[in-house]
Specification:
The protein is 34% helix and 22% strand. With 303 residues, the protein is α/β, with parallel strands linked by helices. The protein has a single domain, classed as Zn peptidases (Aminopeptidase, 3-Layer(aba) Sandwich). The strands form two sheets. It has an eight-stranded mixed β-sheet, sandwiched between helices. A two-stranded antiparallel sheet has the order 4-5. β1 and β2 form a beta hairpin. α1 packs across α2. It is globular and about 45 Å long.
């Protein structure tokens, strides 16, 4: 693994022309994604053995970063039900993983989140979910690592939630049992699929819904190696498919919490067994997470 990561980093050094004020640990970012999308985790289906391994890996990373939590051992357990073809199925002890960094000067909170689950095994095929959403999970860990060493003004709650693929159940559970008054939440940052784009485009969704965020995000749409575009949040304005309710940020939006959802368009490997680590685009991934980091730093300073 280290040999492969090292080779990918050499490629990044050769081709990366993006300049940011601050950068995440690129090597650890790729290592985290590669492990989370590995065959041993079998696609991280909720309550599977692979999901349990993913949980423990995330807990270990939170411990390594010396994060605190409002939940014992960083874990918020929850139950949920699904209705597939009229058949109700109950699931017990799904788990969100929650870490926390107290802010230096604000009582307000920024939630930084991604879902760590994927489809798992279906008919003897394993869906590893590298882009969807080991990439967002690794990005949350990279951002937590940065802010653990660079204390933010706002408190930051880092949430890796379960059971998104089965109906956004983890984010719904987090909002239903949120450890602070919801009025304290200034912003939700959600990352779902951020590691590849043939068009070199990363979307920032939410600024049409919450236009006060647009002046903060807009500077990052120019002069970057990754092309950041705003939209996909009001079809009447931009004519694009509305992603307002497409992922876990929806639970916070329903509570009136402003959000920015970072993600890419669906690609040929979306929800297929070919969504693997080998098919991500490392240069795009690292550049995208660095862009998100610097946008988050700006949001932390200006909100």
């Amino acid at each position: 693994m280290k040999r492969l990561i090292g080779f990918l980093l050499l490629l990044l050094i050769s081709f990366n022309h993006q300049s940011f004020g601050q950068k995440i640990d690129s090597e650890r970012l790729l290592q985290d994604l590669q492990y989370l999308a590995s065959e041993k985790l079998e696609g991280r289906k909720p309550l599977s053995q692979g999901s349990m391994m993913a949980r423990e890996y995330i807990r270990d990373r939170f411990r390594e970063l010396q994060l605190t939590s409002q939940f014992e051992d960083f874990t918020q357990f929850f139950d949920f039900e699904t209705n597939r073809g009229g058949t109700m199925t109950a699931y017990e002890d799904a788990a969100n993983l929650v870490g926390f960094i107290p802010g230096s000067s604000s009582e307000k909170i920024i939630v930084v989140m991604a879902h760590y689950d994927h489809l798992g095994k279906i008919n003897d095929q394993v869906f590893l979910g590298a882009d969807d959403n080991a990439s967002g999970t690794a990005a949350v860990l990279a951002l937590a690592e940065y802010f653990a060493g660079n204390r933010p003004a706002h408190s930051m709650l880092f949430a890796l939630v379960d059971a998104e693929e089965m109906g956004h159940h983890g984010s719904k559970a987090l909002v239903a049992d949120f450890p602070f008054p919801m009025e304290q939440v200034a912003l939700c940052i959600n990352m779902d699929m951020v590691s590849r784009s043939d068009e070199n485009v990363l979307w920032a969704v939410g600024t049409n819904r919450y236009p006060q965020l647009k002046p903060i995000i807009e500077p990052f749409t120019k002069g970057q190696a990754v092309q950041l575009k705003m939209g996909h949040d009001n079809k009447e304005i931009d004519g694009l498919q509305d992603w307002t309710f497409a992922s876990d940020h929806a639970a916070f939006h329903r509570k009136g919490v402003p959000f920015i959802y970072f993600g890419v368009d669906d690609h040929e490997d979306y929800h297929k067994v070919t969504d693997t680590f080998e098919n991500i685009q490392p240069e795009f991934f690292v550049n995208a997470v660095n862009l998100i980091l610097n946008a988050l730093i700006s949001l932390d300073e200006k909100l």
